[in-house]
Amino acid sequence: MLKVEVKIDDLDYEKIIKSKMPGILQELSKQDDKMSKLAHILIGLEDLPINMINAALGVLSKQEKEDLMVKIFTEYKDEIVNFINSKAHKNSISAEFIEINITTIN
Fold it and tell me: Which of 13, 55, 79, 81 sits at 20 to 30 Å (Cα–Cα) from 103?
């Protein structure tokens, strides 16, 4: 078994939000609950939700932004592992990635 360590620096938070928010809202709009109704409202507001989030990110320190990204990546860690495994399989890499741990480096 191998352990692979990857470090990420200089994340463009605004670009991540702008590229991922439409998909996130689309997924939320498919649910059968109040979140779906909220997602439909936010979709109708076009760029306003993205601008609001970016404004909120603008007042956070780099450490706070990194802590937020850790929480988001941790929430989706199973999906990230599945994505890595599918890419490995697609590229004929015979390996199974079993877990990912995301932390900040102080």
Answer: 55
